[in-house]
From TrEMBL:
CDD domains: ExoIII-like_AP-endo (cd09086). The lineage of its organism: Bacteria, Pseudomonadati, Pseudomonadota, Alphaproteobacteria, Sphingomonadales. The gene is xth. Residues 243-252 have a biased composition (Basic and acidic residues). Belongs to the DNA repair enzymes AP/ExoA family. This is Exodeoxyribonuclease III. It comes from Parasphingorhabdus litoris.
Amino acid sequence: MKIASFNINGIKARLPRLLEWLEETKPDVACLQEIKTQDEGFPAAEFEKIGYGAIWHGQKSFNGVAILTRDQQPEETKRGLDGEPEDEHSRYLEANVTAPGGGTVRVASIYLPNGNPQPGPKFDFKLRWMKRLRNRASEIWREEIPAVLAGDYNVIPRDNDVFSVKAMENDALMQPESRQAYQRILHDGWTDALGVTYPAGKIWTYWDYRSGGWQRDQGFRIDHLLLSPLAADHLRSCGVDKEHRGREKASDHAPTWVELNL
């Protein structure tokens, strides 16, 4: 079963690239972030044409997450995170999907706050959001089911996950508090699929449009797929579809994926 995460950076602007990627790689599940559209503008019919069911949680102009599933309709289990009723950002969506061989897998599409500039209220919100995510992750973990928390976490976990530590040292993505909040989730029993598969790092998932980041391969890893124990036990492979970042009018992120032998 192939489960992918893809920050599409505007689903309307990137729709041709997204459909192209889906048809070429055929993931069973695609968790999308930054769809940047209200619910009524989501192009569900375009995905139905190529065999994908969808659920989505949109927001005008920014944020927004979605889950696409091949040859089935995802069963929504949660929309948004508990703990801060005034938070109206569309950043979390969760569903049950059926594995090709049968059985249920829980997936979540996550778009974690960026947190810049830091220090400040945006960084404080990021840390509170990560605490709320940890609480939800703990609830899922206790269900003892195969689960994948996929998305743009806006956290660079390790120094070898960035092209230049010095260039990013003051960014919210690399602050000790951000990293510690991410590590707490891992310490609760979740496995960072790319992190354990590529311990030496240097596997980028994002290249900034500015300053020739793609052309110079100056990227970093902020798109993660965290696996529950029952999912991690069946991890077969994982990787990044880097080539898709180099296509015309591409997102600034590349699709990231895991294959589970369920």
